[in-house]
Design brief:
The structure is a single chain. The chain folds into two domains: 110 residues, Immunoglobulin-like (Sandwich), CATH 2.60.40; 385 residues, Neuraminidase, CATH 2.120.10.30. The two termini are 22 Å apart. The strands form eight sheets. Strands 1, 2, 3, 4, 5 and 6 form a six-stranded antiparallel beta sheet that branches. A five-stranded antiparallel beta sheet has the order 7-35-34-33-32, with no helix packed on it. It is mainly β and 512 residues long.
Length: 512
């Protein structure tokens, strides 16, 4: 892990006054010194800590100057303060305004902090469109991973409205992909490894490391529940399925409930119990990865879990581990169970209906063709719940209509009637952009609660990715950025670990 460094002082009369307790501060009736340590934890190069020593108790506000300034106040009163700074610019002498408030007065001064340039493997960021007056507030968090000839290095970053990287976390010391990164309700940054959960602050300080039972391996997603516990899709060692009369290992088909406070797995769900493990119609991977669970969502309205299985479709199960419905083309479904000895899954398949509630024809129901205003999700990712109770997700279009060709990807909203077991498509964005928006892998969609816009991430358009914010439901494009990958340490083929990928993006408030 890289070592922290003390920033280099530009020796000017102004800066010298920050380093010593001198009488020139007497006009403010506060004697103080300021000293900054760049990258204090060695893995977050665009952060710093400013150490304040003063003769009176004071609080501090800092502001990183620039086209997108970053300001934050800290209310703690003390004579010795360690003030975190996030949002520095790379390859620049940053000016950071420090305001100290104390009983009877206030003093403001400016520190200069030099940073190094970004590594060459970072993508080039191009802002294609921006309408800040109608956008969701915040900057742009990218859960990005860099090709390493068959594996990945993970270095999530945040960029601003000018396309300038303002924060990043170098997690390459793990030696493999670590994801997803997210901010929990308590402000902690959380990422998942193979069977570990790592918690950081915005300065890259390790707050906690939790080891999950080694028989479980985290896969693709971690979500926080209202009570702070975590739902995690996993692979379970030793699990088997029967396919074509043969028992083989199964991958990525369990969910666990994990308690961060006790470090214990409290509950387990087995998806093979509910689905037909021998249905391999769009599975282009090993037969063991029959489901390839890549995302989950929690529905608080009925205490249930919505599961995205890339190779099958969308599934809903209850907290008590009962199947509610399956959203997928009806073609090819049989008996559930690891040993093909369960129940008939067909009665749980949702019927696709139009806006008038009338079912589409059999070709649409079976996924052989798509209707103008309805299609099932294909190889989808990132299911979420909208405030109206509907489901939104990223429909990759992988093997759409059971055909292997470049087609289209989109964000799409579905309305499920759990009583009649029907599904209606209410909204979509992306189909009209065709192959230029097509991402066969990964990708993301989010509902932005303040603006009520939708953020869509096409994370693998060969050598680039796109982040687009659109108004909902009229699809006006408000923000768009393109990330052009370097893929310096891959052979730039469509193979795992050979091209850079943008797993997800979030609108993110950059603050400590």
């Amino acid at each position: 892990m890289p070592k922290p460094s003390i920033f280099r002082i530009c020796i000017t009369p102004t800066i010298i006054s920050f380093l010593f307790l001198i009488s020139s501060c007497t006009d403010s009736k506060l004697e103080y010194s300021l000293e900054a340590k760049l990258n204090p934890n060695g893995i977050s190069p665009l952060t710093a800590v400013i150490k304040v020593v003063s003769d009176k108790e004071c609080s501090a506000t800092i502001k990183v100057l620039g086209e997108s300034p970053m300001e934050q106040s800290f209310e703690t009163l003390a004579k010795n303060l360690d003030i975190p700074v996030v949002g520095l610019y790379a390859n620049r002498t940053n000016e950071v305004v420090v305001t100290l408030k104390y009983e009877g007065g206030m003093v403001t001064d400016t520190l200069k902090i030099d940073t190094e340039k970004l590594p060459d493997y970072f993508p080039r960021i191009e802002i294609n469109k921006i309408d800040r007056s109608n956008m969701e507030a915040g900057m742009h968090l990218c859960d990005i991973h860099y090709a390493k000839n068959g594996t990945y290095d993970s270095r999530p970053f945040i960029f601003d409205d000018q396309g300038e990287v303002r924060w990043y976390l170098d997690l390459s010391f793990f030696g493999d992909i670590i994801w997803p990164i997210q901010r929990l309700n308590d402000g902690v940054l959380l990422v998942g490894g193979t069977n570990e959960i790592h918690e950081y602050d915005m300065l890259g300080k390790t707050l906690k490391k939790s080891a999950i039972d080694k028989k479980y391996r985290i896969h693709h997603d971690i979500i926080e529940l209202p009570d702070g516990k975590l739902l995690i899709p996993v692979r379970k060692d030793g699990a088997l399925i029967q396919v074509n009369g043969k028992l083989i290992p199964s991958f990525n088909d369990f969910i666990i409930l994990y308690n961060r406070d006790t470090n214990k797995v409290e509950k387990e769900w087995d998806l093979a119990k509910h689905l037909d493990v021998s249905r391999q119609l769009i599975n282009k991977m090993t037969s063991s990865d029959w489901l390839h669970m890549n995302g989950i969502a929690y529905d608080s309205s009925d205490n249930s879990i919505i599961v995205s299985g890339k190779n099958q479709g969308l599934i809903k199960i209850s907290w008590e581990d009962e199947l509610q419905w399956i959203m997928a083309p009806k073609k090819g479904w049989g008996v559930s169970g690891r040993n093909e000895d369960g129940f008939d899954t067909n009665p749980y398949l949702l019927t696709a209906v139009n806006s008038e509630g009338k079912p589409y024809n059999d070709k649409v129901q079976n996924g052989i063709e798509s209707a103008p205003n309805f299609d099932f999700p294909w190889g989808q990712h990132a299911p979420k719940l909208l405030p109206n109770g509907n489901i939104i997700l990223y429909d990759n279009g992988f093997s759409r209509n059971f055909i292997q060709k470049v087609n289209y990807s989109r964000a799409v909203e579905y309305e499920v009637d759990k009583e009649s077991l029907t599904v209606k498509q209410n909204w979509q964005y992306g189909k009209e952009r065709g192959s230029k928006f097509f991402s066969m892998l990964i990708s993301d969609v989010d509902y932005l609660s303040t603006s009520k816009n939708i953020l869509v991430t096409s994370g693998f358009i060969y050598h680039n990715a796109k982040i687009v914010e659109v108004s909902y439901p009229n699809n006006e494009e408000i923000f768009e950025a393109t990330l052009y990958f370097s893929s310096l340490n891959g052979n730039k083929t469509f193979n795992w670990g050979q091209l850079d990928i943008l797993y997800r993006s979030e609108r993110f408030k950059l603050q400590y």
